[in-house]
Amino acid sequence: MATIDLTGESFGGTVAGEGIVLVDFWAAWCGPCRAFAPAFEAASERHPDVVFAKVDTEAEVGLATANRITSIPTLMVIRDGVLVYKQPGALPEPQLELLISKARELDMDDVRRQIAESPTAA
Fold it and tell me: What strands lie across the sheet with 20-26, from one edge to the other?
């Protein structure tokens, strides 16, 4: 599966559903973003059941701001509508594969319980 481009209009609907969504916040002028792109694209081919999406932070400034993106590339992983990972930096392909594997293994009932019990959840 190829990557998809997200906009302010399509972001919410894409990340709110069931399943795993990886979102790469990037910009054309960013060297590390360009270096990470082939690994992200290759992973999208290996995992057709996962949504691989990209947000061009230059074209979607409001979306980047709303998601508090302060450094690029930043990778977000959303599973079943819940943000489970958000970190800046380009990942080598083996680490990206490990991250996808860990996202698959998550017990989402436990994740939701932990979020509900978190003191910052209020």
Answer: 4-5, 51-56, 20-26, 74-79, 82-88
- Count structural domains, the chain: 1
Which residues belong to the active site?
Answer: 30, 33
Give the count of beta carbons closer than 10 Å to the beta carbon of residue 17: 11
pLDDT at 22 over 70: yes
Range of the domain at 94: 4-117
What pLDDT, in 10s, does the model give residues 35-70? 999 999 999 999 999 999 999 999 999 999 999 999
How far apart are alpha carbons 89 and 72 in whole angstroms? 7
Tell me, yes or no, whether 16 lies in a domain: yes
